[in-house]
Amino acid sequence: MRVSKVNSGPGMTVTAKPDNDTGSPAAPARTHTIDAFHQGRFFLVQCADAGHRAGMDAMLLAATIAEGARGRLADLGAGAGAAGLAAASRLSGLEVVLVERAPAMLECARRTLALEQNAALAARASLIDADVGLRGNERIAAGLENSAYDFVIMNPPFNAADDRQTPDPLKAEAHAMDGADLFERWLRTASAMLKPGGQVSIIARPQSISDIIASLGRRFGGAEITPVSPRAGDDAIRILVTAIKGSRARLVLRDRIVIHQGEGRDFSPLMHDLANGLADWPRRG
Question: How many whole angstroms from its chain centre is CA 189?
Fold first, then answer.
């Protein structure tokens, strides 16, 4: 697949072509695109006709890793790798592990890491085929080691299972919860994988705030919650949550991030910088 041009916005398609050789018998032939992120500093291979396509959520999630951060980061439910690679693109001291279970998304992630344009990032990135909900020895055997990571980020399927679902099964898997205890399972795994004092970051819908707080439980403290709103005065459509393993600090509700400026579709100055890897959204505490 050849890149024909670079676009400046997050997730802008630079080329698309049918591809009959998926490299995996579990992943059917699909049309893929190559999409530019961080103003062309890294690229994703994504399914053009099915599944979740990365955008704003992944870039906001990556922005929660503070400037100057170093160590190992696990991106749970990584899809094609957008959030993890966005963090690695901005932070040269990060080693990133992408964790995904859907065959089609795993194939996109493999192709992403194989792109010539991503060669520098691919040297600091790897891929694990695993279900985030695995427990104990099964989780460890799948490669999700105990106390091995400094950061865990996650963009789990956060639509309720009884919400109206897309007929695309790959997109439904990426968007719809597979059980009422989803955040409990994912945060249990995050806690096991993190070193003491490690940071977890989550992006979700505001409706999930009580489930997230309950699932953080005694594993994490110092939760910082940032509402994300389309425009000034609008209700939040997302929340960004960070917390620290083993902390006993109190919860903090932060000022919101506003996505758009004015009535048009232009990003606000802050959102533009967060979306393009030009700024971070670090913890206050």
Answer: 16
pLDDT of residue 163: 55
**Is the pLDDT assigned to residue 159 strictly greater than 60?**
no
What is the tens place of the pLDDT at every residue in 98-139? 999 999 999 999 999 999 999 999 999 999 999 999 999 999
Find where tokens 């104990």 sit.
136
CB atoms within 10 A of CB 3: 15
Burial class, 64, CB count within 10 angstroms (exposed 0-12 / middle 13-18 / buried 19+): buried
Tokens (6 digits) for 208: 């999930």
Amino acid 87: pLDDT: 98
Could you tell me which of 242, 249, 244, 260 has the C-alpha nearest to residue 63? 242
- Can you count the helices (H) and strands (E) in the chain? 9, 12
Helix (H, G, I), strand (E, B) or coil at 207: helix
Q: Residue type at 15? A: T
Residue 27 included in any domain: no
**How many separate domains does the chain show?**
1
Record the tokens describing residue 161, joined without a space: 């299972």
Task: Give domain status of residue 47, yes or no.
Answer: no
| CATH number of the domain bearing residue 181 | 3.40.50.150
DSSP bridge partners of 241: 202, 225
Type and span of the H or E element at 89 = helix 82-90
DSSP letter for 255, please. Answer: P
Q: What is the pTM of this model?
A: 0.86
Q: Which domain holds residue 138?
A: 52-275
In the chain, at which residue ranges do the beta strands (DSSP E only) sit? 12-19, 30-37, 42-47, 71-76, 94-100, 125-129, 149-154, 194-204, 220-229, 238-245, 252-253, 257-258
Across the strands, what pairs with 202?
154, 241
CA distances from 42 to 10, 213, 258, 270, 276 (A): 10, 33, 25, 20, 10
